[in-house]
Design brief:
Structural class of chain A: alpha/beta
Number of domains of chain A: 2
Distance between the termini of chain A: 38 Å
Number of strands of chain A: 8
CATH superfamily of the largest domain in chain A: NAD(P)-binding Rossmann-like Domain
Oligomer: homodimer
Largest interface: A-B, 97 and 97 residues
CATH class of the largest domain in chain A: Alpha Beta
Strand content of chain A: 5-15%
CATH topology of the largest domain in chain A: Rossmann fold
Number of helices of chain A: 11
Radius of gyration of chain A: 21 Å
Chain lengths: 289, 289
Amino acid sequence: MSGQKIIAVVGLGLIGGSMAAALRGFEDYKVVGVARRQETVDYALRHHICDEATTDPMEVLPRADVVWLCMNPKGIVRYLDEYKSVFKPGCLVTDVGGVKTAIMEGAKVLPETVDFIGCHPMAGTEFSGIEHSFKTMFQRAHFIVTPRAESSQAHLDLMSRFAHYIGCADVITTSAEKHDAIIAYTSQVMHIIAVAVCDDEDLFQCRGFEGGSFRDCTRVAALDVGLWTQLFSMNAPALSKVIERLEVNLHAYREAIDKGDEGFLAEKLAWSANRKRQMNLPGPGQVVL
Amino acid sequence: MSGQKIIAVVGLGLIGGSMAAALRGFEDYKVVGVARRQETVDYALRHHICDEATTDPMEVLPRADVVWLCMNPKGIVRYLDEYKSVFKPGCLVTDVGGVKTAIMEGAKVLPETVDFIGCHPMAGTEFSGIEHSFKTMFQRAHFIVTPRAESSQAHLDLMSRFAHYIGCADVITTSAEKHDAIIAYTSQVMHIIAVAVCDDEDLFQCRGFEGGSFRDCTRVAALDVGLWTQLFSMNAPALSKVIERLEVNLHAYREAIDKGDEGFLAEKLAWSANRKRQMNLPGPGQVVL
């Protein structure tokens, strides 16, 4: 065995597969994938998603300098508990989970010798599974990190170099609680909107009448049910509040439309459109071809 | 003057500019743009958006074989009334308006010698003005037509050839009333969602935390206020009903999340996600580079 350092990517699904592929070639590390099924390991090796891959965590975790947990949130929490005494002393464990409070809480089981920095790369698609992974997934995405007070500067720097290497736009450092409160708005409620729109009785009559706004708004509705059930449930109070605020804002638009006062409606639209313009965000997200 | 036939595109904004550019070279027609401002005419000619362009409708309308009205809906209705006796006998007048009942009603002022077929190409962006127009705008878009009972087959065929030439995915023929009812759902409420999302108190705190779903869902929020005030107002009853249904569907999701029953939430999500999958729509709309 060479003296190469090891990044273990555990869970080779949509995100894990993309992360492994994006990390290949990083500095003097090799990327070793860990999957439950041999079929996934074979796929990963055949498609050069990892340098090596295995179904046996015990083969790689005790030697890994970085462990990137890419399962769903509950799977991450379970894994931390199950392998807490296996991780190599001095290593960095991180993750990709879309909720951070529960995961940071789960990471408390780790021994003092193991560093944990929560991570949420703001990227993904409505698909799941390694066959939909692609190594450019994280390009121009925000890379959110939620360190612990005791996280080492060396590991924080390493996280930044990872973010840069996989093409992220920036590194945002925040607390788990703040992350979860904001993500309820920027990501979770967008998924609730998408599914709620698809609940409409007119859905199947609208073929041939949909344009870009419909496709964009409902794109994420075909979501991974298991994953999103966890994400929504583990952030329920924050998400519930955001949905309620959206109901109020939609209702205000309905009243403005019912009122039949075009001047009033125009003012209201101008106010909202101006808020959007102030956001000055990049246009449509990356395109998956 | 040559024997070339003439398509007059009236109103060289985002849609009119794109339509003129997309139509250039169609069969043995030349495309003549009509704009209010000389500046727009100059821009159109400098960028080869039209074969010819003028600020004077009287110069082209009496000779035009096809007149494509590309203003906002009220502008189209006013124009039909103002120029009803100027259009060339036997010509086809059409439009691009996002509401059709009011426009088909407005077209009743035309003399019997002038054919009118309503049209709504399901394409556009959140920008406005000729400087944002692009000739590939209509590629893969639905091309909806609302003919009158007395529309000639020759003109219907011509509309289909236009749709094909500008790259539309298909031609959907329907009534103005059905168009307006469905469009309230597939397009108008998507715009209401986008502005309502931007009304949220967390909007400006979410920079750095937004991903593809947020960008996609709010893309159209920076809308053309004058245009959308008209579109919403001219279709208010249908739109109001769709917003109300969305409020109900969102509320049901909020209740499911508050309930804390993961099995129930998973079932609900699976049901909605499956509806979306059944739609089997193409992915993200065309990308504007």
